[in-house]
Amino acid sequence: MKLKYQLVFQLLESCLVDFEALISFEAELIDVLREGEVVDGHDMGSGEANIFVFTDDPRATFQRAKSVLENAGYLMNVIIAYRNVEGEDFTVIWPENCAREFTVA
Questions:
Q1: Which residues, listed in sequence order, are joined to residue 84 by a DSSP beta bridge?
Q2: Are strands 5-12 and 38-45 parallel, antiparallel or unpaired?
Q3: Residue 54 CA to chain centroid, in angstroms?
Q4: Which end of the chain has fewer surrounding CB within 10 Å, N or C?
Q5: Residue 29 pLDDT greater than 70, yes or no
Q6: Residue 79, in any domain of the structure
């Protein structure tokens, strides 16, 4: 089964976690995902940490992950965006009304 979207949770430098905290957050994220949503790894560097998730419904996946972000204290220091797995352009869904161009370093 091929999923349609890649969802990226990008933690910004202002809350940049160490590698172990990133792995812990990733594990908590995995716990709230549903069948058919798959964590596809992470990276860290260039002032950001990213966790990549494949999903067919990025907004619903984000809503389930929101409590994990809040509990970890990351919600105000994260950008969440998705792209079609066949495409290159990302759509930012958090924070709402974000004007910043989203890129993965």
A1: 5
A2: unpaired
A3: 10
A4: N
A5: yes
A6: yes
User: Which of 58, 52, 48 is CA-nearest to residue 93?
Assistant: 58
**Range of 70's domain?**
5-45+59-91
Q: Has residue 17 been placed in a domain?
A: yes
Rounded Cα gap, residues 11 and 41, in angstroms: 14
72-86 pLDDT, tens digit per residue, is: 888 888 999 999 999
Whether residue 37 is contained in a domain is answered as: yes
* pTM (2 d.p.): 0.91
What domain count does the chain have?
1
Sorted by sequence, the CB contacts under 8 Å of residue 104 that are 6+ apart come out as: 8, 10, 43, 48, 50
Mean pLDDT to the nearest integer, 6-34: 86
